[in-house]
Amino acid sequence: MTVATQALPQGRSQAQRRARAWIWLAALIVVINGLFPLLWMVLTSLKPEGELSRLPITYLPNHATLQNYATVLGFDATNPAPKPFWRWFTNSVIISLSSAFLSVLISSLVAYVVARLNIKGKGIIMGTVAAISMFPLITLIVPLFQTMRAAGLLNTYFALIIPYTVLSLPVCTLMMVGFFQQIPQDLENAAMVDGCTRFQALFKVVFPLAAPGVFTALILAFVNAWEEFLLALTLIQREDMRTLAVGITLYQGEFSFPWALISAALVLAMVPVAVVVVAFQERVVGGLTSGGVKG
Amino acid sequence: MTSAKPVRRELTEKQLAFWMLLPAALLLLAVVVYPVGRLIYTSFFDYSNGPLNPPYRGTGNYQQAIHDPDVWNALKVTLQYVLITVPGGMLLGLALALLANLPYRYKWPVRLSLLLPWSMSMAFAALIFAWFFNSDYGVVNDILRRLGMTAPNWLSSPQLALLATSWAIIWKTSSFVALILLAGLQTIPEEMYEAADVDGATPWTKFWQITLPLLKPAIIVALIFRTITAIQTFDVPYIMTSGGPGNVTTTIAMLIQQQTLQYGNFGYGAAIAMVLFLFSMIITGFYLRHIQGDS
Fold first, then answer.
1. Is residue B9 packed enough to be buried (19+ CB in 10 Å), middle (13-18) or exposed (0-12)?
2. pLDDT at A55
């Protein structure tokens, strides 16, 4: 086909123009597929509730309003927030940040052993990491629920922070091994010659140099925790301790679906993660591919 | 002071490795090893009369599971989700990656279209698509009506509920697949395509002879992670259809959650979880064998 078009008189420019049209079309498909559902949520969130139950449906809001956002956030004095959005938001931030820090710290130590120390059994360590990354964590909701209940930890941050730390352990370890291997061994040796212990060398030389890697691992672990649904649904049952991922689904009643409010809450819940991911997109994409994360 | 440091530095590599691996080992012991043991133990007890002193039931829970039509139905539904959403997500993801890899002047809109869906929670995607497929006011039915077609009741139709929920899963997971494959595509040297051009290769042969073989490692990584998450499908049917209508979208994961959290039937839930565990072991074992056979 390309051969045929190139054989035409003025073939070059025509082929180029045609190629450009295809490229534009391709971009359009990718962008519409990826962003239309999100755009639709934003548009829905700007419509007054009444406009959503009218036929034919409107695409752009007839009377755009920020009322739904004010209601969700509790800024509307006449109309109290139907659900404790801020509380859920805080819960999610605390749980996601804590588990991300723990996960990166613990996996860095494992990664250091694999990347730097001269010991046997590294194959076993990496094999375990791979096995954990493929482990169907869902099968453990029964014993985790039993254990947390017996320990009196149901409905605490701890109940989610610990399993989420494990959830991100494999990807963080794989990433950190890669980053440690890029740091020259000589720098570390020099620090130890200057009187640092190995641990000090790790925290004063290796960690700071691996900072971009640590940061990427933190983002991925944070996103993992922010998104998790089943464990959050199972191990937390008190409404004020819920995380956002579960909380958002609680706006709907048995027969009522306040889609305008749900959309506004969704948009608000997505913004923080979206901003971080977009701001550090190069690193996130690089980190994702160093070990595969999850669907 | 100065004499203390050399002493501390005398930690051998082995000792250092031990201390650095200890936190991860303890964590895995608490969150994976112990719960697996407890899961197996629990599966032999009868919790139907409450959690206190449950009587030993031998293999009774397993026998009950084998004869339970709900378990077989859930296995069938889970398999349907695996067979629809894994190839669906892989193909859409591959298409998106190929389109996103074209030479754009402005790469950010395309990249954003992959990153934003990836960064959002599966639960959020489920809510968005529940609103998309709303029978009266959903945008899907509005488009169908404008095209003069009948607008079905997606989420309460036994035939369509599986398709609508699968669509949501495919949309959400294709972004992850696309990001992994896009990174793989960018490692393929341009010279290979140039050499193929000299030989007069068509785009079609270039795709089959160069792109696909070199993309294979990335495809396998994405495939494994997609399959593992598909076996655990929970969020989307739970939110969009609650497993209905009837039980046509009730997966194994939902059955486990139902038995344990709604009915308090821990023993039976644990036995079903063991079934899921075996199910996923068979599939990952199959993959790992295939990969080892290849390399």
1. middle
2. 75
Please give the pLDDT value at position B88: 94
Residue from B169, B136, B142 nearest B239 by CA: B169
Instruction: Tell me the mean pLDDT in the region A200-222.
Output: 84
CB crowding B107-130: b at 16 or more within 10 Å, else e: eeebbbbbbbbbbbbbbbbbbbbb
Give the residue from B250, B222, B241, B253 showing the smallest Cα distance to B87.
B222
Alpha-carbon distance of A199 to B10, in angstroms, equals 12
Which two tokens mark A59?
A: 């695409």
Give the residue carrying structure tokens 């212990």: A197
Chain B contact probe: residue of A142, A267, A276 with most B CBs at under 10 A: A142
Q: Comparing B37 with B200, which gets the higher pLDDT?
A: B37
pLDDT for res B294? 54
CA angle centred on B241, ends B133 and B238, rounded to 5°? 125
Amino acid at A100: A
Closest to A295 (Cβ–Cβ): which among B139, B176, B182?
B176
pLDDT band at A291 (very low <50, low <70, confident <90, very high): low
The Cα A149–Cα B277 span in angstroms is 23
> In chain A, what residues touch B33 (CB-CB under 8 Å)?
none
Nearest-angstrom CA–CA distance, B94 and A118:
40
Q: Which of residues 87-146 of A touch B (CB under 8 A)?
A: 105-107, 109-110, 112-113, 117-119, 125, 128, 132, 134-146
ipTM: 0.86
**pTM of this prediction?**
0.88
Q: Where are the domains of chain B?
A: 60-294
CB nearest to A223's CB, from B119, B136, B257 = B119
Domain B60-294, CATH homologous superfamily name and number: MetI-like (1.10.3720.10)
CA atoms of B222 and B227, how far apart (whole Å): 8
| CA separation for the pair B160, B150 (Å, rounded) | 13
Q: Does A246 contact B at CB distance below 8 Å?
A: yes
Q: Give CA–CA dist B138/A25, Å, rounded.
A: 26
Question: For chain A, which domains are there?
Answer: 2-73 (no CATH), 85-289 (1.10.3720.10)
The amino acid sitting at B168 is A
B275 Cα distance to chain centroid: 17
Query: Across the A/B interface, how many CB contacts are shorter than 8 Å?
Result: 277
Chain B residues whose beta carbon lies within 8 Å of the beta carbon of residue A128:
28
Q: What is the mean pLDDT of residues A108-116?
A: 89
- Of B202, B270, B277, which is closest to A136 when you measure between CB atoms? B277
pLDDT greater than 80 at residue B6: no
Q: Which of A126-140, A182-196, A245-259, B252-266 has the highest mean pLDDT?
A: B252-266
pLDDT tens for A244-284 read: 999 988 888 766 778 888 899 999 998 888 888 888 887 77
pLDDT digits (tens, 9 = 90+) for B133-145: 988 888 888 888 8
